[in-house]
Here is the input.
Amino acid sequence: MQRLAQLASRESHLSLAAKTDAGVSENPVKLAIQPDRSILSHDAWKRIAKSLRISDRELEIIQGIFDDRKEMAIADELKISMHTVHTHLERLYRKLGVSSRVALVLYILSEYLSLLPPTL
Here is the structure.
């Protein structure tokens, strides 16, 4: 995630490439890098939270994960204990059926892409 933020500082948008039978093609989906919060906009985060039935606090924890913060840093930012952050993460893993930070990030990005309107 830190590498992604470094790349974002050089470009305001990243585009996704899709592998097809004809080779690699540019996907029209653009991910704008937000300076204050990861790669998704505030509205995108809210749509994801609503779709997955994630509470505001769980969403804050997920955003901390997207920002590549450790549990201690997330706890400091949210003014809660590290144990509480850990408990939220454990419950999120169970709720979403994932078992790691990487799987959580991929699951959230997959959900985000599934919420985008179809394009031709």
